[in-house]
């Protein structure tokens, strides 16, 4: 063996010996002893340490805080493993069931204020209409009865159809080539013809006008509700 080979083998063995002599990190105990025991709220994964934080003269602040946090985490883990139910399933693996929460946390946002009732809601409550009907579900009426009030029997199709809305009976005849006009509608058509309009689209125009009126009332209700909140 040459001198160069001996030097190479010596340099290669030096890191190995240094790795073997490197000290292992100290294994901390899993038991935590405190003068005053911890209190736990396992539902929130919370461990409360009532002991005052003391800082030894020979220890830095970061080291003291790290040691205190480590003890709290270890105590919380010990409490979870000794008091909570642990189950294992092939699909979900190991599950630990937390108990109910005991600490009441404050809300991040204020409790929402109730919305101001609209004019229709005030009227319906006064007259007992719809969900404000006291007899609903108590023998004097039922949800099916309330639903039936919105339907009308169509003799042409032999089915119950909505009075209004999508596929409502109030839209029947708008797409027909022949529209039946009574005396009252005939007089109305004479006025419409002077304006360049026809009776065929009158039903749709009235419906659009009702929608616009309802939208105006809805905006008025929103403004009234906003003023009441302020």
Provide keyphrases for this structure:
230 residues; mainly alpha; two-stranded antiparallel sheet; 6 helices; elongated
Quick description:
This protein is mainly alpha-helical and 230 residues long.
General description of the model:
It is elongated, with a radius of gyration of 40 Å. It starts with a helix and ends with a helix. It has helices at 3-21, 61-83, 119-127, 143-148, 183-194, 202-229; strands at 39-41, 46-48, 85-89, 93-97, 151-154, 159-162. A two-stranded antiparallel ribbon has the order 1-2. A two-stranded antiparallel sheet has the order 3-4. The chain is mainly α and 230 residues long. Among the domains are: 25-51 and 62-100, no CATH class; 180-230. The longest helix is centred in the C-terminal third of the chain and has 28 residues, at 202-229. Helices cover 42% and strands 10% of the residues. Belongs to the RRS1 family. Pfam families: RRS1. Keywords: Nucleus, Ribosome biogenesis. It comes from [Emmonsia] crescens. This is Ribosome biogenesis regulatory protein.
In spatial order, strands of the major sheet run 1-2
Query: Could you give the order of the helices and strands?
Result: HEEHEEHHEEHH
Percentage of β-strand residues: 5-15%
Distance between the amino and carboxyl termini? 96 Å
Helices and strands in order:
Layout lengths: L2 H19 L17 E3 L4 E3 L12 H23 L1 E5 L3 E5 L21 H9 L15 H6 L2 E4 L4 E4 L20 H12 L7 H28 L1
Antiparallel strand pairs: 1-2, 3-4, 5-6
């Amino acid at each position: 063996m040459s001198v160069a080979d001996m030097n190479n083998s010596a340099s290669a063995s030096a890191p190995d010996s240094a790795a073997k002599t490197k000290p292992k990190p100290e294994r901390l105990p899993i038991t935590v002893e405190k003068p005053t025991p911890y209190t736990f709220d396992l539902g929130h994964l919370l461990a409360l340490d009532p002991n005052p934080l003391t800082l030894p003269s020979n220890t830095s602040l970061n080291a003291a805080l790290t040691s205190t946090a480590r003890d709290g985490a270890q105590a919380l883990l010990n409490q979870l493993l000794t008091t909570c139910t642990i189950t294992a399933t092939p699909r979900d693996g190991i599950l630990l069931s937390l108990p109910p929460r005991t600490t009441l946390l404050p809300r991040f946002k204020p409790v929402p204020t109730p919305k101001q009732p609209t004019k229709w809601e005030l009227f319906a409550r006064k007259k007992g209409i719809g969900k404000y009907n006291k007899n609903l579900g108590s023998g004097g009426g039922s949800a099916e009865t309330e639903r039936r009030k919105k339907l009308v029997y169509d003799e042409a199709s032999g089915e119950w159809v909505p009075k209004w809305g999508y596929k409502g009976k109030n839209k029947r005849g708008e797409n027909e080539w022949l529209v039946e006009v009574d005396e009252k509608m005939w007089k109305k058509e004479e006025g419409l013809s002077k304006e360049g309009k026809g009776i065929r689209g009158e039903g749709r125009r009235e419906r659009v006008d009702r929608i616009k009126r309802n939208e105006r009332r809805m905006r008025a209700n929103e403004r009234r509700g906003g003023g009441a909140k302020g």
